[in-house]
Design brief:
- By secondary structure, the chain is mainly beta.
- It has six helices and 32 strands.
- The protein is globular and about 60 Å long.
- It starts with 5 loop residues before the first helix and ends with a strand.
- The chain binds CU-O-CU linkage (C2O) and copper (II) ion (CU) (2 copies).
- The site of one copper (II) ion has 7 residues, from loops.
């Protein structure tokens, strides 16, 4: 399959791509982002409005399994909205997504993946620090009809991780069509907090899809590669506009933004505050109370939501609030995501611990070097691959960065000249966010502690500090807007 290019679009082979006439005239009339891009309404595309739905379907909770299990990626069907059946991909038959793996730190994991998709795929364990051969490298693929056993030891702290295909140039389509799941690690430090558990710990995988189309086709236009393939409906755990019955007490919500490109500004419709206790890399040092928080594709949140003021019969929605600074396609609409229906008034209180975990903060002085990554993508219009890092597109045969085992480095993602948001993700490590200049200037409440994905808005430069481990091999890092990733916005580092 060939990379979609601007140049190609003005020639033959465009196929079924729909290209607005204004775009074609821009392509043929010159390059560079200042040459008449006003015609396109900015370089980051247009919003896709959400159809909220009716919140009459129960929220599904994926099955929980332990350290050994099986995944069978396959084309199947699922009722994503009401009783309407869609053609999807699942890790089992009958639904999108896969089971939630829940393991303790130290566990040996054994997961057999039998690829029944009818095309190549693999599994990347996003957030896990595991050997390169198990990490789902983009060209390390499982052929159609073949199986592969993922086998690794979990050596990291408690946290919410996830898994999804990382198939070279097909990640976006395979995830969009339904392949993803959660991977929770528990440890004694977390257990000592006695956080809400069982029915009071709810996983929420938030994704947007185009539900007007029952075959869930994935065919982004050039402009949709700019903005990302935004959906017209929000699914939570594989169901559009669901509801969940709760009691009037504190719940722990474990949230993944598993969308291809959509960023959410999460809040409750009654504006009640909630407490962020964790993120991509596990528990924060101390809790942070907020009334809204941005969550970009690939990022996770661990929050405590206190519903004790609610009465039986109340309905409280998790919603997306408007936000700015994210280019022309995102943050322009407020919509509901999931409805919580209070069905039982109880008198249970939960005191949030003031210290959650020990996180040793790294300082810039500890870093041996700084690497700069230009992610602005200014002036690349006439080249192959519209999305680049340091003016390069992914090449499995080229090592972009050589990193010494156990090095501590600062990586700087520079989107100061850019017009699109880029959630940047690095495999096999967790980093600390050191600094953000431009745009939002500063860190958000979910950016303390450890992370593996950081949102870099247009105009921003974000510095992260990374303690690399002793885990030799080739690992990728990329934008987690999956359209951008498949369009080439991914490089690799060799750890040795
Ligand atoms: Cu969740 Cu390289 O990805
Ligand atoms: Cu990853
Ligand atoms: Cu991007």
């Amino acid at each position: 399959m060939k990379r979609k290019e601007f140049l190609k679009l003005s020639g033959a082979g465009v196929g079924s791509l729909l290209i607005p006439a204004a775009v074609i005239s821009v392509i043929s009339s010159g390059c560079g982002k200042n040459s008449g891009m006003g015609n396109m309404g900015g370089m980051s595309g247009s919003p896709v409005n959400i159809n909220e739905g009716d919140f009459l379907q129960a929220l599904p909770i994926p099955a929980t399994v332990g350290a050994s299990g099986a995944l069978t990626p396959q084309a199947t069907s699922a009722t994503l909205k009401g009783s309407q059946v869609y053609n999807v991909f699942g890790y089992q038959s009958g639904s999108i997504l896969g089971p939630t793996f829940r393991v303790s730190k130290g566990a040996d994991v054994n997961i057999n993946v039998a690829n029944n998709l009818g095309e190549v795929s693999n599994v990347h364990w996003h957030g896990l620090h595991i050997p390169a051969a198990m990490d789902g490298y983009p060209t390390n693929l499982i052929n159609a009809g073949a199986s592969f056993k993922y086998n690794f030891t979990v050596r990291q702290r408690a946290g919410l991780n996830w898994y999804h295909p990382h198939t070279h140039m097909a990640t976006a389509r395979q995830v969009y069509k339904g392949l993803a799941g959660l991977f929770i690690v528990n440890d004694p430090e977390e257990a000592a907090l006695n956080l809400p558990a069982g029915e009071f710990e709810i996983p929420l995988v938030i994704q947007d899809k185009r539900l007007a189309d029952i075959s869930l086709s994935y065919n982004p236009t050039m402009m949709e590669i700019m903005s990302g393939y935004l959906g017209d409906s929000i699914l939570v755990n594989g169901k559009a506009s669901p509801f969940h019955e709760i009691k009037s007490q504190t719940y722990r919500l474990r949230i993944l933004n598993g969308s291809n490109a959509r960023i959410y500004n999460l809040a409750f419709n009654n504006n009640q505050s909630f407490t962020i206790i964790g993120n991509d890399g596990g528990l924060l040092k101390s809790p942070a109370s907020v009334t809204s928080i941005l969550l970009a594709p690939g990022e996770r949140l661990d929050i405590l939501a206190d519903f004790s003021a609610a009465l039986t019969g109340d309905e409280i929605f998790l919603v997306n609030k408007l936000f700015g600074g994210a280019g022309t396609a995102q943050g322009k609409q407020e919509f509901k995501i999931v409805k919580f229906k209070i069905t039982q008034k109880v008198n249970v209180t939960f005191a949030i611990p003031s210290v959650l975990s020990s996180v040793v903060s790294l300082t810039a002085a500890q870093a041996s070097r700084t690497r700069n990554f230009d992610i602005s993508n200014s002036g690349v219009m006439m080249q192959s691959g519209m999305h680049r890092i340091n003016d390069k597109v992914f090449d499995a045969n080229r090592i972009d960065e050589a990193v010494a085992a156990n090095a501590i480095e600062i990586w700087q993602f520079d989107n100061s000249q850019g017009e699109e948001p880029h959630p940047m993700h690095i495999h096999s490590i967790d980093f600390q966010v050191l600094q953000r200049t431009g745009g939002r200037n500063g860190l958000t409440a979910s950016e303390s502690g450890w992370k593996d994905t950081v949102l870099v808005m247009p105009g921003e430069i974000v510095k992260v500090i990374i303690p690399f481990e002793n885990n030799a091999g080739k690992f990728v890092f990329h934008c987690h807007n999956l359209e951008h990733e498949d369009d080439g916005m991914m490089l690799q580092y060799q750890l040795s």
